[in-house]
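Write out the 3D structure for:
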Amino acid sequence: MKDFPVGVSPEADNPGEEVICDGFFARVPYRVQTHVHSDHLTHFNMSKGKQDILLSEVTRQFLLHEFNADLPYRQNLKALPLNQTRTFGSSEITFLSSGHMLGAIQVQIHTNSGLSLGYSGDFSWPLDSVVRVDALVLDSTYGSPGSVRQFTQDEAEARFLELVLERKAVGQSTSKHTGVLSTEPSRPFPGTTSARAGLHQALSGNRHLQRQRIRD
């Protein structure tokens, strides 16, 4: 999703863009950053010097980790809580979780003209809550039949646990989010009933956790 401007100017008879999601326009004062995947960080460095950047706290932490040269000192990087409405300019903005990755959000904007606008962001389905708006921009990520995943969430979590344990065994860390987990369709997966509990123990530093535990 690129360059999605929504909102109106403070003067109702003079429409103009006030908020943009995952993009940069010099005349738009507010940028919403829905998550940290690179295809949604279009012109982020330009936004840093020109716009207030609104995002979730988790996304802010990811950005500080990835681009921490100056972000910790910027006053225009503003984390908003989920499910609460905040006013910026003439727009009321609400973030809801999109389920796409940690910190990813849906965006709901109510303008002073009475119009409500939304952007889905990248999302996973089903969702606990969805934006309720007059007009919705729906992201088309994974809309192609060729993008349908051939594995379940439990299988992905089990494979992730395997990777964590493999890297712990050789002293490497697994912390950077670079995209969705993928697997070879022909590769068998172990049982996954204890995958999440095993992952928690592995990340907590339990060096005695063995890969065999997720094969039970």
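The two ends are 42 Å apart (CA to CA).
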